[in-house]
Write a structure and sequence with these properties.
By secondary structure, the protein is an alpha+beta fold. It contains 3 helices and 6 strands; from the N terminus they run H-E-E-E-H-H-E-E-E. The protein has a 6-stranded antiparallel β-sheet with strand order 1-2-6-5-4-3, with helices on both faces. The longest helix has 32 residues.
């Protein structure tokens, strides 16, 4: 009888630990999406989260603001390369998601305004099948991060 109670207690303790680990892993995933900027980010919100496809396929958009603009050394001034990166990788996704989801229509307008701003900085990262494009306006302290994994 005591052995059963001990086994039951151990099983319940194990389940509780596993659930805690899952909860912590899920709650830390969002900021890890913005890992290149995580130390500088003051506030962030996930604005669009796509339905997950096969494997880890996804298209997510975050908005963010920064505590300090000290960590912008890897960011570049707007140039033709930004337009090419956006047009080739992200615009198609925004347009295709826009047809299916009204939520992204306003977001597309905001991103276009930001992209066309004179004060925009950008950072593009392509790693392990994931493409990230950070767009940031120094004057308004507003930015977006688009993450595409195919």
């Amino acid at each position: 009888m005591k052995t059963r109670k001990i086994i039951l207690t151990l099983i319940l303790a194990f389940i509780a630990v596993v659930l805690c680990i899952i909860y912590v892993a899920k709650s830390n995933k969002t900021i890890s999406d913005l890992s290149e900027m995580s130390s500088s980010i003051e506030d962030y919100t996930i604005k669009f989260k796509s339905d997950r496809g096969f494997g880890n396929d996804r298209f997510d958009i975050y908005s963010f603001s920064l505590k300090s603009q000290d960590n912008l050394k890897d960011f570049r001034q707007k140039n033709d390369e930004l337009d090419q990166i956006f047009d080739n990788n992200f615009e198609t996704m925004v347009v295709s998601k826009q047809e299916k989801n009204n939520q992204i229509q306003e977001l597309k307008v905001d991103i276009e305004k930001l992209k066309n701003s004179k004060h925009i900085l950008y950072k593009y990262i392509e790693e392990d099948g994931t493409k990230k494009l950070y767009l940031y306006d120094k004057n308004t302290n507003k930015g977006y991060c688009m993450i595409l994994t195919i």
